[in-house]
UniProtKB/TrEMBL annotation:
<keyword id="KW-0479">Metal-binding</keyword>
<keyword id="KW-0324">Glycolysis</keyword>
<feature type="domain" description="Transketolase-like pyrimidine-binding">
    <location>
        <begin position="545"/>
        <end position="756"/>
    </location>
</feature>
<protein>
    <recommendedName>
        <fullName>oxoglutarate dehydrogenase (succinyl-transferring)</fullName>
        <ecNumber>1.2.4.2</ecNumber>
    </recommendedName>
</protein>
<keyword id="KW-0786">Thiamine pyrophosphate</keyword>
<dbReference type="InterPro" id="IPR011603">
    <property type="entry name" value="2oxoglutarate_DH_E1"/>
</dbReference>
<dbReference type="InterPro" id="IPR005475">
    <property type="entry name" value="Transketolase-like_Pyr-bd"/>
</dbReference>
<keyword id="KW-0460">Magnesium</keyword>
<dbReference type="GO" id="GO:0046872">
    <property type="term" value="F:metal ion binding"/>
</dbReference>
<dbReference type="Pfam" id="PF16870">
    <property type="entry name" value="OxoGdeHyase_C"/>
</dbReference>
<dbReference type="Pfam" id="PF02779">
    <property type="entry name" value="Transket_pyr"/>
</dbReference>
<dbReference type="Pfam" id="PF00676">
    <property type="entry name" value="E1_dh"/>
</dbReference>
<dbReference type="InterPro" id="IPR042179">
    <property type="entry name" value="KGD_C_sf"/>
</dbReference>
<dbReference type="InterPro" id="IPR031717">
    <property type="entry name" value="ODO-1/KGD_C"/>
</dbReference>
<dbReference type="InterPro" id="IPR029061">
    <property type="entry name" value="THDP-binding"/>
</dbReference>
<comment type="similarity">
    <text>Belongs to the alpha-ketoglutarate dehydrogenase family.</text>
</comment>
<dbReference type="GO" id="GO:0006099">
    <property type="term" value="P:tricarboxylic acid cycle"/>
</dbReference>
Length: 887
């Protein structure tokens, strides 16, 4: 009996020990990255504030003690579970000593892998195979030589530019030059998997090096901008700093020998603002190529560590990654981790363990890697590209390096990080370390390494000598990442502003009838929807439209003409005010819908209507990017309420209003902004038109010598309208596509007009011969006896209906004329001139519902006064009628 008990105890201990070994394996898989040797400086731990650090040790002996094993167990053989690949093919058991050695090699050297948070067991196992399998990461001799050549170019470029422009801001890559071979490794692996187009975004750090050594931008053009060479005298636009500029190039990759289109999207100083723009461009390129799985087009985003952790738009962009109408089927994020943000170290810059922790919310793997180990970086980047290709999901490569200089080359970093920069001053460059390593292992000779260096140095010197002449021949538009040649002034888009945008009545009737008809078959609709559809059919019978039907007719007629329409935003499918209902929901079968505008014609263009996440900054940036790459599509973003634009203002400032001047971008994005004092508090319904109009480049001091509406539209930076009739809204949307150029369009439209009984239009206002009216004159009794009118009131938007009601109540129909300014930017000088001439005896007022220091007054007043000076009527004053200044 005693013998049996002892035998059972021995069995129990064997079981316990095997379970301990399995726990050790999982311990490394979960926490190994916390003790990986990621920091090239060996001084700032990546796990800055990690509570796990206190219970994580890099010592295998400490791990043993934690799991009730000791040195006497090191040579015992233990079976390996199915959740590890450290044994390799055909090996099911190993001595504990070898198990620990292999785990240390896989998880605690220069690569730290975070992946155990991923919910899919298949994907976790896939990562184990890439990092636990013996000899993972081994490079061939040719691959090592290619890697050295790329490191040489990356290093020597920064060295050369630093020597030639020692005091110029360039935001060099010194300390993380491995970014260049990292990106090229991703491109090689991705093109080898079939990718034909890569859309890239990044901030300024290392941008010149990426332009030169990744995108293949001619060096003489880059150097010319650094030398301050002015573009041609007839160049348009302000241009931008060279480390903000973008490009599009067609290249043949060296390793895969395949053609790839590389686009580096222009970026403002707002570090991560380009992220959603890149995703939008990528999605549009996938749409254009019929790439429904993302196998041909992919996004590649390069980030800084401080910005990736702190900028909210990063999370907004990540949240779109798996949404049906926003997904780009996986983005590879590469973080250039300098372990510092300007002068702020990570302990003051984030609360999370890593700068990349935000990506864990998406089940994305994070590959931390020591940026001073080019081979580890190369391997990780190949795995990242393979992950994206296989699983169509995001992943992150965290290049943990350092920043050799200050925030820019004129900054002294020792003022705030003296200890770090004393260490950096003694740090041998990554290129030099790798060169010595390959020479020591006889992969290359000293002469071979020197030849690589000298050959590229000659290329740099020759380019410098050509720079002045080459740059003088390059315009600002030549740096555009979205070249517009082949579109403007060609094909279908030959409409001039004075040409009609009306549509045949049978087309309007067809679209309106289908839009107002119930779905075919046994589709069960909500009773309220049935009433709405019936009211639409009644309108069609009466040859009239409200705001919603006019919008549907504009969309439907464009779809008939082959124009893709994309409507995106919060609750746009139903409409935030419950007015649109472009997606009908089956009342008894979940996820069963019907989209009437998708079934108008058998050969119509696609109609995409999609509710967005509760994001403005990210989604507005996405749609801006989508419109950049689809100039022949009508791309519309709608804010749920006007004040929601506040959160997307960065995109308006940095892209919508200024993208053409800075980078030659000409997207036709439409912004629908509900605006008006709708009883929802002082802010909720305000789209802040004063901000938008302040961003307009309409000149209020000069009356145009020649009134040419088309030229006005071409020269403006963005169009701002505040329509009062459904017909004018209809024509505005159609004009947006009909023009031979693209401009951003902002449409202010109060929600109250969606259902206002007087805000209707007749078919006659939308049929052939009709067009958009920038100004709508008085059409009542006052307009018929203009000489006797005592007051001429200018207004815009829903204020018109309030004024008409008040005028009627006070019986002033013959004394007061009301003129609607439908288009604010560009300002309709000619139409306003004609109205002022028509009423010579009237005093003048501008009326608005907004407070005096908001709304349109500050913009309209100098423009109308300019017209008065032109008419030699400077003695006339424009009065103000509206709310007083808001305190």
């Amino acid at each position: 009996m005693k013998y049996i008990i002892m035998n059972i105890s021995r069995v129990d201990r064997d079981i316990d020990d095997h379970m301990s070994v399995q726990a050790i394996i999982q311990y490394y898989q979960v926490r190994g990255h916390l003790t990986a040797q990621l920091d090239p400086l060996g001084m700032i731990s990546a796990n800055i504030q990690s509570p796990l650090h206190s219970v994580t040790s890099s010592s295998p002996h400490a791990v043993l003690a934690t799991h009730n094993l000791d040195e006497t167990d090191m040579d015992r053989v233990f079976r390996l579970s199915l959740n590890t690949r450290i044994g390799g093919a055909g090996v099911s058991a190993l001595p504990l000593r070898e198990i620990l050695t292999r785990l240390e090699g896989a998880y605690c050297r220069h690569i730290g892998v975070e992946y155990m948070h991923i919910n899919h067991s298949e994907r976790r196992q896939w990562i184990r195979e890439r990092f636990e399998t013996p000899d993972a990461g081994h490079l061939s001799l040719d691959a090592k030589r290619t890697l050295l050549a790329r490191m040489t170019r990356a290093h020597r470029f920064e060295e050369f530019v630093g020597a030639m422009w020692p005091t110029e801001k360039r935001f060099g890559l010194e300390g993380c030059e491995v970014l260049i071979p990292a990106v090229k490794a991703i491109i090689d692996a991705s093109t080898g998997a079939g990718v034909e187009c890569i859309v890239m975004g990044m901030a300024h750090r290392g941008r010149l090096n990426v332009l030169a050594n990744v995108c293949g931008e001619p060096l003489d053009r880059i150097f010319g901008r650094l030398r301050g060479v002015e573009p041609p005298a007839d160049d348009e636009g302000s241009g931008d700093l060279v480390y903000h500029l973008g490009t599009t190039r067609e290249l043949i990759t060296r390793c895969s020998n395949k053609s790839v289109q590389l686009t580096l999207v222009a970026n403002p100083s707002h570090l991560e603002a380009c992220d959603p723009v890149v995703e939008g461009v990528t999605r549009a390129e996938q749409f254009n190529r019929g790439d429904s799985k993302g196998g041909k087009v992919m996004a590649l985003l390069l980030h800084g560590d401080a910005a990736f952790a702190a900028q909210g738009v990063v999370y907004e962009t990540l949240q779109m990654s798996a949404l049906a109408e926003y997904s780009t089927h996986g983005t590879i994020h590469v973080v250039v981790n300098n372990q510092i943000g300007f002068t702020t170290d990570p302990r003051a810059g984030r609360s999370s363990t890593y700068c990349t922790d935000v990506a864990r919310a998406l089940n994305a793997p994070v590959f931390h890697v020591n940026a001073d180990d080019p081979e580890a970086v190369h391997y990780v980047c190949g795995v990242a590209a393979e992950w994206r290709h296989r699983f169509a999901g995001d992943c992150v490569v965290d290049l943990v390096g350092y920043r050799r200089n200050g925030h820019d080359e004129r900054d002294d970093p020792t003022l705030t990080q003296p200890v770090m920069y004393a260490k950096i001053g003694r740090q041998v460059s990554c290129w030099e370390r790798y060169r010595r390593r390959l020479v020591a292992e006889n992969t290359v000779s000293e002469a071979y390494a020197r030849e690589l260096h000298d050959r590229y140095d000659t290329i740099l010197t020759d380019a410098y000598e050509r720079a002045e002449r080459a740059a003088a021949m390059v315009s600002n538009n030549d740096w555009s990442d979205r070249p517009s040649s082949g579109f403007f002034g060609t094909g279908r888009c030959e409409l001039t502003p004075d040409q009609p945008t009306g549509v045949a009545e049978d087309v309007l009737t067809h679209i309106g009838t289908l839009f107002g008809s119930p779905p075919p078959g046994d589709f069960a609709i909500h009773p309220a929807i049935a009433r709405i559809l019936a009211s639409r059919l009644e309108m069609i019978e009466n040859r009239s439209v409200d705001w919603t039907v006019a919008e549907a007719m504009a969309f439907g007629s464009l779809l008939k003409e082959g124009v893709h329409v994309r409507l995106s935003g919060q609750d746009v499918e139903r409409g935030a005010s419950g007015h649109r209902h472009h997606v009908l929901h089956h009342q008894t079968i979940d996820e069963t819908t019907y989209r009437p505008l998708c079934h108008l014609y058998p050969d119509q263009a696609p109609y995409t209507v999609c509710n967005s996440p509760l994001s403005e900054y990210g989604v507005l940036g996405f749609e801006y990017g989508f419109s950049m790459a689809t100039p022949n599509a009508l791309v519309v973003w709608e804010a749920q309420s006007g004040d929601f634009l506040n959160v997307g203002q960065c995109i308006v400032d940095q892209y919508v209003s200024s993208g053409e001047a800075k980078w030659g971008l000409r997207p036709g994005l439409v912004l629908l902004l509900p605006h008006g004092m709708e009883g929802m508090g002082p802010d909720h319904s305000s789209a802040r038109p004063e901000r938008l109009l302040q961003l307009s480049n309409s000149d209020s001091d000069v009356f145009p010598a020649t009134i040419d509406e088309r030229r006005q539209l071409r020269d403006i930076n963005m169009i701002v309208v505040n329509c009062t009739t459904p017909a004018n809204y209809f024509h505005m949307l159609r004009r947006q596509i009909g023009l031979p150029f693209r401009k951003p369009l902002v449409v202010l439209a109060p929600k109250s007009l969606y259902r206002h009984p007087d805000a209707t239009s007749r078919f006659d206002d939308m049929t052939p011969g009709a067009r958009f009216a920038p100004v709508i004159p008085e059409s009542g009794p006052a307009g018929q006896s203009a000489q006797h009118v005592k007051r001429l009131v200018f207004c815009t938007g829903k204020t018109f209906y309030d004024l008409v009601s008040a005028r009627s109540a006070k019986h002033l129909d013959r004394d007061v004329a009301i003129v609607r300014v439908e288009q604010l930017s560009p300002f309709p000088f000619a139409a306003i001139r004609d109205e002022l001439r028509k009423y010579p005896n009237a005093d003048l007022l501008w009326s608005q519902e907004e407070h005096k220091n908001q709304g349109f007054w500050a913009y309209v007043r100098p423009h109308i006064e300019c017209v008065l000076r032109h008419l030699h009527l400077s003695h006339k004053m424009l009065g103000y009628a509206g709310r007083a200044i808001k305190k």
